[in-house]
Specification:
Helices cover 43% and strands 19% of the residues. The protein has 9 helices and 8 strands. Helix 7 packs parallel to helix 9. The longest helix is centred in the C-terminal third of the chain and has 23 residues.
């Protein structure tokens, strides 16, 4: 077991309210010392997390997004215990759940967006993507892997997970361990997030296409074979048709604004060569 665990919380600005998360951390029943490192105003997220890791003094790192709330008092203990139990475990993450006080809009969104929530498991389960919203790993391994790739502005957790797997490590989902991750609060936030995500993928496609790791749309716990741009477009269009057929309005809107963000990003990064 580590003597000290460093908890890294990246946030866009000092205005982000992390009081609830800090309260959750203070209530944790864990037998190791912890330090909290808040990284503010550094972008992209990969650089912010790497910055926090450089400041960390603990043997183990726990990355938690600023909008996360912890589920239960044994959240940290479960992550730390499972990670310490096997050196082959490269990272240990928690199940993502919708907060109990989620609005009707957020609940509808989570039902329509595939894999927005992860099931809570009773036994350790292997997954293929350690969500950067909440996962733990050893600082030594994180440093040896080179940290998150700061050259990409979206999908850095998928790319990092892919490198971990290629190095022979397993990514595990801790049993009976979950955290709450809010869905977009309203239509305005849904639009903003999907425009940003689409633009982020366009950036990676334009400048670092080999880093745009393809994750299977029906199972985020596995990587699929790399796809050509044509194959990805075909799959995206088919998924749009499926959303229309199933009358999933929020999913349709998400895909529309994602595509709009991708087109705008493609024009910006490929045509005008702006970064």
């Amino acid at each position: 077991m580590p003597e000290l665990v460093s908890i890294i919380i990246p946030s866009r600005s000092d205005n982000d309210n992390i009081a609830g998360l800090l309260d959750d951390l203070a209530r944790q029943k864990v037998d190791v010392k912890t330090e909290v490192i808040r990284v503010t105003g550094i972008a992209p997220p990969a650089r912010a997390r790497n910055n926090g890791a450089k400041q960390a003094k603990g043997e183990m790192l726990v990355f938690i997004d600023c909008d996360i709330r912890l589920g239960g008092e044994f959240y940290l203990a479960n992550l730390i215990g499972l990670l310490s139990s096997n050196k082959a475990y490269g990272a240990v993450c928690a199940s993502l759940r919708l907060p109990p006080d989620a609005s009707a809009f957020q609940r509808r969104y989570s039902r329509q967006i595939a894999h927005y929530e992860y099931d809570i498991v009773d036994e350790p389960a292997e997954v293929f993507v350690a969500s950067s919203a909440c996962f733990a790993m050893s600082r030594e391994l994180f440093v040896s892997m080179g940290g998150f790739n700061e050259n990409i502005i979206r999908g850095e957790d998928s790319e990092f997970s892919w490198r971990l797997m290629k190095a022979g490590y397993h990514i595990m989902l801790a049993p009976n361990t979950w955290c709450y991750h809010p869905a977009p609060a309203d239509l305005e936030e849904l639009i903003r997030i999907n425009l940003r995500n689409g633009s982020g993928v366009a950036y990676v496609d334009a400048f670092y296409p080999k880093l745009n790791i393809d994750v299977h749309p029906r199972a985020v716990t596995q990587f699929s074979a790399p796809k050509t741009p044509g194959q990805r477009l075909r799959r995206f269009l088919l998924s749009c048709l499926e959303a229309v057929f199933r009358m999933k309005a929020l999913l349709i809107l998400s895909k529309f604004f994602y595509a709009l963000g991708y087109i705008a990003g493609t024009v910006r990064y490929r045509v005008f060569k702006r970064t």
